[in-house]
Design goal:
The complex is a heterodimer. By secondary structure, chain A is mainly alpha-helical. Chain A contains eight helices and no strands. Chain A has two domains: 57 residues, no CATH class; 141 residues. The model of chain A has no long low-confidence stretch (mean pLDDT 90). Chain B is α+β, with helices and mostly antiparallel strands. Chain B has a single domain, classed as Arc Repressor Mutant, subunit A, CATH 1.10.10. Helices cover 56% and strands 17% of the residues of chain B. Chain B is globular and about 50 Å long. Classes of the chains: A mainly alpha, B alpha+beta. At the A-B interface, helix 2, helix 4 and helix 5 of A face helix 3, helix 4 and strand 3 of B.
Amino acid sequence: MTPGPIDGAITALDHSLRGPRRARADLLGEVRDGLTDATAPYQEAGLSRAEAERRALADFGDLDEVADDLQAELTARHGWRSALLITIGFPVLVVLWDVVWLTDTVPPKELTPTVAFLSDAIDGVAGVAALIGIAAAIGLCLSARRGWPVNRFTKGIGLLGYCTVAVIGTLSTLMQTNDLHRAGRVMDVPLVLAVTAVSVLAAVWVLAWSSRCLGVARATRA
Amino acid sequence: MNADSIRGHLDGLLLAVLEDGPLHGYGIIEALQRRSGGALEMPTGTVYPALRRLERARWIAGDWDTVGGRRRRTYTLTRAGRRALEEQRAEWIRFSGVVGSVLGGAP
């Protein structure tokens, strides 16, 4: 079947929007439903399907302007989800590592003052990142009420993700290299290996979503 | 009334239409045109991102429903949305009173 005017418009919108595929599909599905509904009065008045779709699209307005507004919502949504990931993810990792220390597999008494300090610093950075994530999520909610630009919040969340992974990664590396003999023994423990793998995957996840935050923020005009 | 004069009041208009009960996107557009007697001329495309923004503001709640055999996104006014609507109504009464007293002339 030959694509009609509405199909062409939805395709054009899809190509111009940046953001998670499912969120884009959700938005565009709603827009397509609305445009399809809008053709009904014109068809009832005797117009052909194609002409009714063209009239509905004329009523719809400038596609570029609608795309800008839809992009803002996609940017806000991705920023919100990324803020939640940072707010929940880093404290969860701190708890997982606390479980490792509490299992007596690596007794706390073996920690040097430097390693203990670095461990506390990681906890602190994770806590601060979580608080900033909560503030950013609240900011995104308020931006809908106050008209604040969403791209700044989402860009900030992306930078928060990058910085938190970089700082915690650096502190963790310093912890391991501070006492290489202990580090070697610790990495022989299956629980430590498992939590290390989870931590690395979480870091990759945060970096990927943070990259997308910066990408969608760049694509947003408002 | 053209789109520019409506844009600043779109939130209040959308909230007011939902006050009577849940509606999907095109139903909201129809309700706006019906209640304004066709006087509101605005691009219908502006409604969809505005609805998502109001949902983000927690003033309305959106959910996918099956209406007439088709999957539709339906919106409902929340308690916070009702409070926001009352505030916007009060603000509009104040605003229109001020503008009316400056412009003067017969109503």
